[in-house]
Specification:
By secondary structure, the chain is mainly beta. The protein is 0% helix and 54% strand. The strands form 2 sheets. Strands 2, 4, 5, 6, 9, 10 and 11 form a 7-stranded mixed β-sheet that branches. A 4-stranded antiparallel β-sheet has the order 1-3-8-7, with no helix packed on it.
Length: 119
């Protein structure tokens, strides 16, 4: 049974940094893509970025490019989201997700962690 568990959320001032973690278990993730998404109150879920578990290739939404960095530790089966230069518009529930590289849909989701940026 695949499980994704996020941690690291919290309250931070604008301009600050946070690092989120997504601990994955239940299978090997070689051949999978892991993604970060976020959802602010009253808004639709938004893609933040993704990483290929095998190659480490990453890409990001324009809104976070240059400020956020996704990485993974294969030995720990954990993905990270380093968020720098945070602003109030980054306030949201952040969730990690996983899909096979041959699938368009993310099959597995974590429960989410709240990130609140104060001005």
């Amino acid at each position: 049974q695949v499980q994704l568990v996020e941690s690291g959320g919290g309250l931070v001032q604008a301009g600050g940094s946070l690092r989120l973690s997504c601990a994955a278990s239940g299978r090997t993730f070689s051949g999978y893509v892991m993604g970060w998404f976020r959802q602010a109150p009253g808004k639709e879920r938004e893609f933040v970025g993704r990483i290929s578990w095998s190659t480490g290739y990453t890409d990001y939404a324009d809104s976070v490019k240059g400020r956020f960095t996704i990485s993974r530790d294969n030995a720990k089966n954990t993905m990270y989201l380093q968020m720098n230069s945070l602003n109030v518009e980054d306030t949201a529930v952040y969730s990690c997700a996983a899909r096979s590289i041959v699938s368009r849909e993310y099959a597995y989701w974590g429960q989410g962690t709240q990130v609140t940026v104060s001005s």
